Amino acid sequence: MSPMRETRPIADAQGRRFGIVASRFNAQFVERLVTAATTVLRGSGADDDDLELVWVPGSFELPLAARWLAASGRFDAVLAFGVLIEGETEHFRLIAEVTTHGLQRTALDTGVPVLHGVLAVHDRAQAEERTGGSQNRGAEAALAAVTMANLRHAQSAGARS
User: Can you give the residue ranges of every domain in the chain?
Assistant: First the structure.
């Protein structure tokens, strides 16, 4: 029996391009996600010329802007960031669900990895913790974006050989 073929993409962003879409709503938290993501991307080898940041009004608009970036052919991966904080109604949950489905559909329809960095939290304390405390979801999404961009490249190269 021959050994199976295995792909383990590396966390090297050199030569990869990343589109970032970010919601202006709850910007004080979203900016922290974007800062952490761009720090990780640069630390993984991406140049400033490899990064493009687009701001949209709210999380509801993220999937469409992500689709525009993904469909442009300029990016190896797209990262989407937003923060939804629960209020007195279920509005935050509805926006979180349609945003999640839209981002997933964008990735599946375009074949470009779209990383979900939209937080749906119950209060500002949770937003604080996940954007600047002991864990930052922006950094986690950036690491996943680098890995997925390299996996996509490896799969494309394998399909050509």
Answer: 33-51+60-76+90-123+139-148
